[in-house]
Amino acid sequence: MMTHIRNPNSGIYRATDDYIHAMEVELPSRFLFVSGTMGLREDGTPGRNLAEQLDLIWGNIRRILAEAGMGMEHIIRVTSYLRDADFVQQNQDARVAALDGRAVPVTTIVAQTLSAEWLVEIEVIAAA
Questions:
Q1: What three-state secondary structure class fits 127?
Q2: Which of 3, 29, 52, 63 has the fewest Cβ atoms within 10 Å of its own Cβ atom?
Q3: What is the dihedral of CA 92, 98, 102, 105, to 10 degrees?
């Protein structure tokens, strides 16, 4: 599988260091579509705060990817659902760290979660 970043140089706003407009995936043999994943511990209880929930989410995503024989390097798309717009920077920082600085197409949405204790939910698409 090969990937190609697609960031036009004109006619559209500039992509940032942690964001790309598009990623072309050439000849993948498999895709993994990961449901919105929350910052819940193995017993189903949420992390105490945003930082802990983000750590739990990315740990949970790593575990799901591992189950499919994939790793973080296989993520090709991230969508974040934040309970509060004030969470955007901390969410971005956690994503950049989790992906080791690798930029992928991202979307961040502020939405009411199903439980007030759930501060963020993240879904990813991976390809191998």
A1: strand
A2: 29
A3: -50
pLDDT digits (tens, 9 = 90+) for 57-67: 999 999 999 99
Q: Which amino acid, 48? A: R
Burial classification of residue 54, based on how many CB atoms lie within 10 Å of its CB (0-12 exposed, 13-18 middle, 19 or more buried): buried
Residue written as tokens 């969410």?
Answer: 91
86 DSSP assignment: G
Residue 81: the pLDDT is 98
Q: Where are the domains of the chain?
A: 2-127
- Structure token pair of residue 53: 């929930």
3-25 pLDDT, tens digit each: 999 999 999 999 999 999 999 99
